[in-house]
UniProtKB/TrEMBL annotation:
Role this protein plays: Involved in the modulation of the specificity of the ClpAP-mediated ATP-dependent protein degradation.
Keyword Hydrolase: yes
Segments of this protein annotated with the region Disordered: 1-20
Protein family: Belongs to the ClpS family.
Protein name: ATP-dependent Clp protease adapter protein ClpS
GO BP, one annotated term: proteolysis
Gene transcribed to yield this protein: clpS
Amino acid sequence: MSGEDKPGRSGDTGIAVQEAKPTLKKPPLYKVVLMNDDYTPMEFVVEVLEDFFYMSRQQATQVMLTVHTKGKGVCGVFTRDIAETKANQVNQYARESGHPLLAEIEESEG
């Protein structure tokens, strides 16, 4: 058997192949939202925002005031897994600290 007769070693097969780039889609994003309640101290909410969402004191105070006055406030926007993890961490920490603070996730528009 010569080199030309071996399978997979022939020259041009006459087939044109164009490699297609896969179209990648960004994952959907989710907002972590704190819900207002009448029992959780404002300072605790600020602490949660600083510790779990790495906000400055000023940013955390602004979000806390939004939660207090509007009923809820956005802590951050993340992919689903990260948003769920952060919401669960906040809820667990609040329960362990004896507060009814509730974090939920909502799908982000865009």
